[in-house]
Amino acid sequence: MAEQPPQDSNPASPDSNADLPADSKPAPAPPKRRKRRWILKSVIALLLLVILPVALAPTIASTSPVRHYVLDQVNARLNGTLEVDDWSVGWFGGMKIEGVRIKDDKQRLIFEAPLIKTDLTLLNAARQNFKLGETRAQNVSFWMIKYADGTNNFQRLAKRPDHSSAQPNPNPAKPSAPARPATPSKTVKFPNVSMNLLADAHGSIEQEGQATLHVVGAKLSMNLAGTNEPLENSAELDLRVNDGAVGHLKVSGTLDAIDDYQLALNTLNAREVFELNGLDAASLKPFLPPLTVLEGLAGTTDGKFTLVATDGRQMVLEGGVKSPQMTIGGTFPRPASATQPAGTIHETYACALDFSVPRTVIDAPDGFSTPATMHIRTGDGTPANGISLSFDHGHFNLSADSSIAALMEAAQRRRPGATGRVDVEAKVDLAAIASSVPHAFALREDLTPQSGVLRSETHLAFASDR
Questions:
Q1: Is 179 helix (H, G, I), strand (E, B) or coil?
Q2: What pLDDT, on the 0 to 100 scale, is given for residue 127?
Q3: DSSP secondary-structure letter at 291?
Q4: Less packed terminus of the chain by CB within 10 Å, N or C?
Q5: Cα separation of 139 and 100, whole Å?
Q6: pTM for this structure?
Q7: What is residue 78's predicted lDDT score, i.e. its pLDDT?
Q8: Cα 63–chain centre separation
Q9: In angstroms, rounded to a whole number, what is the distance separating the alpha carbons of residues 314 and 377?
Q10: How many angstroms separate the CA atoms of 305 and 135, rounded?
Q11: How many CA atoms lie within 13 A of 32 on its CB side?
Q12: Closest by alpha carbon to 462, among 398, 386, 411?
């Protein structure tokens, strides 16, 4: 039997279609490259739409239209005008602001800073990591006006909410039950900040009826390696009252009051030195309460005070100030007399003054946040070594060695509850002082003080049971 030729085992093979008509052959598969390219282009376009605006955000924010828009929003909330000539920000570069000016509601210039710059980048700011780096504010000028109500022109810049158009509620709500005690607020945490700040400024502080304080020059320096690190600070001020001589005030030291990004008075460490050199006492008036007797405060002063805090458990103050001629006084009522009607009169008292604070220690075993357990001791604790004020016609001396709680209880005429002592000594030649400022004592016009010395000694001894 003859052998049959082998059969093709793959009838679907390409060779099997060799004899088929051309129009009956299967169409080739469509190419896939174009589809992949379209997807890739779409992804790139989408990324550009997302990334490009973010990358250009600093450039857009630095443009004039954006700056004008931001300033318009700010000025709508001010009783005045904020002006900025230019600013620039960057994701990886620092910030610079040029030509900052603030005007009050009468368009009077009250603040100007030609240039403010910092190394802070937008990227670090977005991460809440405020690395300010080299921060400079150059040639800053200001004009402050203090008003009789205690406010100043800077405080009056912000607009207050207008409630005049609010309609009264015809159906006022009934008084509700007493509210539950508020839960303690969460502890405030500070962001991480580091900087090396240098600023210089000049300006003036005016107060109605008072001499003008001119800040001829001020230099401020602050160096902070991080929020939880000690702050090194220094401030030097050259001050002049009206056209008087220039005096100097310097404050310098270190302050470590933050731990774990929180205010930590119970671990406070600080050392600050305050120095006065030829400073007119009138320079202090803008910062003192408006007392009549302080209207005529003046006199060249020199002195130094040192304040040291250790581990939030002890604070030490020591120093003193002297003035060869200190003047106090003011405007007092003048009663009517046979020769003139009632009115006012300005009187002053001048004397040499010496104020001294011996080494005064405040111990806080439970930290500075618990004043009730603090203890104060002046000098060596003896009556003769206390805080003293001496002047031409008298002196005062205060010494203490007692807990703060005992002093507070004794002031309320209650049992002190702890041992301690307080000594107060005073000697004042009232006749000599009244001769200089008789209307401060409301003396009659026909009375002339001839003599009179006030002597007073008070010695208090506390016991835990009485």
A1: coil
A2: 85
A3: -
A4: N
A5: 11
A6: 0.78
A7: 94
A8: 32
A9: 11
A10: 30
A11: 1
A12: 411
- For residues 466 and 415, the answer to whether their CB atoms sit within 8 Å is yes
Q: What's at 112, amino acid-wise?
A: E
Distance of CA 371 to the CA centre of its chain: 23
Angle, CA 92 vertex, CA 91 and CA 97 arms, to 5°: 75
Both tokens assigned to 351: 């004397």
| Residue ranges, the chain, pLDDT below 70 | 1-57, 162-186, 444-446, 465-466
Q: Name the nearest CA neighbour of 396 among 327, 318, 454, 322.
A: 454
Tokens of 145: 């006006």
* Rounded-to-integer distance, Cα 26 and Cα 339, Å: 133
* SS3 label, residue 180: coil
Both tokens of residue 99?
């030509």
| Cα dihedral: 77, 79, 80, 81 (round 10) | 0
Report the DSSP pairing between strands 258-259 and 453-462: unpaired
- Residues 91/95/97/103 CA torsion (nearest 10 deg): 90
C-alpha span between 3 and 356 (Å, rounded): 135
Query: Could you tell me which of 100, 109, 98 has the C-alpha nearest to residue 142?
Result: 109
Q: What is the pLDDT of residue 3?
A: 47
According to DSSP, the residues that pair with 314 across neighbouring strands are 310, 363
Gap between the Cα atoms of 64 and 67, Å rounded: 5
Do the Cβ atoms of 360 and 378 come closer than 8 Å? yes
Backbone angles phi, psi at 232, to 5 degrees: -90, 125
Helix, coil or strand: residue 90: coil
